[in-house]
Amino acid sequence: MNQNDKLGLADRVALVTGGSRGIGKAVVALFASCGAHVVVNYVRDEMAATETVNMAQAHGVKALAVQADVSQLDQAERLLQQTVEHFGRLDFLICNAGIWEGAPVEAISEELWNKTLEINLKGTWSVCRAAVPLMKQQRFGRIVIVSSTAGQRGEANVSNYAASKGGQISFTKSLAPELGSFGINVNCVAPGWVQTEMTNEALGDTATLESVMRSSPLGRVATPEEIAGPIVFLCSTWANHITGEVLNVNGGSVLCG
Q: Best label site of 85, 106, 141, 179, fewest CB within 10 Å?
């Protein structure tokens, strides 16, 4: 039996929101290397999405890029419709799309607050809402929501982001018992600092980088690939009896049960 068969990923269909860069791109690459077909959702950067599709196809799987802003329910529904039209099913949904922009609470504009909650939290709800009826019909599905340590402990000057990520964790814990009897497992991965396009500017500051490294027992920042592994694991047959879990992937920087 080959590795793909052991994991139960070969010929499955995975949809990754925010799949053209950072953690999402690493997840697409890992799924493809395990034999899963992939849908790469993106909002603006069509070139990056096309490059990600080409990378996935090089592994011998089918791949599709779909532009959609999942903070808008009608676009999330269109994303699922195009996925089904192309592949006929959806097995794995990775809710990864998100933004990270903050300020002291008195300086956060209403626009930024709403934008953060709409993309990070509402976007997670909208794509799940669109996907769940299909997964119920299939009697199978795996949903993995990408949250953050900020949603577990809170973080100064990004209260909007922390609120959205904490909401994702509560949403995970609500969906797991709601959907378990339909063969749908719902889990959450909570990364700490990860070296991506979203964090490049912050980590480019020497003082910030040194502070981050001191806060982690492993003494370094994670790579996107180190977050992708746990996400894909939660979709594999090795994780069949795991649901409602928050899997911490933070180098030990936040220790919680």
A: 106
Cα 256 from Cα 30, distance rounded (Å): 27
The predicted-structure confidence for 190-219, as pLDDT tens digits, reads as follows: 998 787 777 767 667 787 777 777 888 898
Q: Kindly report the CATH number assigned to the domain that includes residue 92.
A: 3.40.50.720
42 annotated active-site: no
Q: Which helix (H) or strand (E) holds 169?
A: helix 159-179
Give the position of tokens 């090795």: 238
Pick the catalytic residue from 31, 87, 125, 161.
161
- Count how many domains the chain has: 1
Name beta bridge partners: 248. Answer: 190
Tokens linked to 116: 């953060």
Tell me whether residue 66 is in a domain.
yes
Looking at the whole model, is its pTM more than 0.85?
yes
